[in-house]
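Hey team,

Filing this mostly as a record. A colleague (T.K.) asked me to run one chain through the structure pipeline before their review meeting, and I want the input and output archived in the tracker in case anyone asks later how it was produced. No errors, nothing strange. Just documentation.

Input sequence:
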Amino acid sequence: MTNGPRPRLVYERWTDPVAGDILEVADVDVRKLDLTAPDEQGWAALESAHGYQVATRTDVASVAGGSQWLAGRDLVTRCRDLLAVCSAGAGYDVIDVEACTQAGVAVCNNSGPGAEAVAEHALGFMLDLAKKITVADRRLRSGPLGDRLALRGSQLMGKTLGVVGLGAIGGRLVELCAPFAMDVLVFDPYLDEVTAERRGVELVSLDELVERSDFVQVTCPLTSETEGLIGKAQFAAMKPTAFFITTARGPVHDEAALLDALVSGGIAGAGLDVFHQEPPRHDNPLLHLDNVVATPHTAGITIEAAHDIAVATATQWQTIFAGGMPPRLLNPDVWPRYCERFNAIFGFRPDATTDLDKVSEQGSHVT
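Output structure:
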């Protein structure tokens, strides 16, 4: 036990109230960031915070000047006591990782708990597009049905699935597609041949993946490496019968190039959960194409996922403030500097081997 300050955590919203319940028991001073309140109020909370559960890009999009509440260089510089920032889900494009690392701030995400929800959503897109479910529904509701054979779809059985990024979501999608006996191609620079063989997938270049796949599924995070990864050349190389599906982040693909491919018949259709601008404007031309099925970044929003993400989020903050290494630390190079800053604030050094269960039994180091 130490006489250090009570840890303060600022959050914009929880995916489920259970996160607040867990942190209340952990004796963390939790403050809500009200995006509609005067800026001074938000900065007052953040400038004294030790942790920040970062608002999502969609949350801040509807608020004037809302981007200031993302964990960019200006926010990190201004909030001098900030020790750690965490994104709500697997994606962490709302955080400037380089700026945080330079400032000694740990960066975490919540990959894993929402993987099932997103993978099922991606599979849903595949079935919807192939079977023309949404197209048929629109036709049935809009007037005389006409010739039913015009709504003839295709099957997933025996087709080729191309996955861009075999993380938790992509890996689970591959498992879900197993009953369809699909050939699975994967482009992932961080995946080795041994792991690929063990998981029953073929590791290929991006060029080969887009040329051979019947379904191109993008499940990678948005980083400097992946921004603009799928562009005009990739869409041009796809089969005219192929479908493009993304549950990643909008800027991973070129939206204008996608529109051209869809309008020209270069590809058969698209399933989109993410856009460059979120929520997308109603006049976004992609939303007015019959061969597009779209959802407003809701792939990971299920009752089960919201609960599991909230528990994982709160547990990770418990670990951080108890002096352990965050289980989903994205910038491990920050650890030595982070430990120094943590010690200066709370009076003890974090330990990467800290067992949260033991901490719970013995009482937190921070009071």
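Quick notes for T.K.: Confidence is low (pLDDT under 50) at residues 357-367. The longest helix spans residues 303-321.
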